[in-house]
Amino acid sequence: MALKDPQEALTVALCMGCGGEIYEGDEVRRIREDGALVHNNGVCDVEFAFDSVYDAEGFATVGGYIE
Asked: How many domains does the chain have?
């Protein structure tokens, strides 16, 4: 579907990643648990997935801890 001018496009949802509007025709990804949408732009989708899946990042230490 061709992207429309946002001034003319219908807002269909809010992005769970950035909180911005998702317009009819935007490329999106659906979140499995609740059906919410995120922009499929390599930013909103990736950051939302990262924040939802991981609880820490850093360097592995003895015993499986993260420093």
From this structure: 1
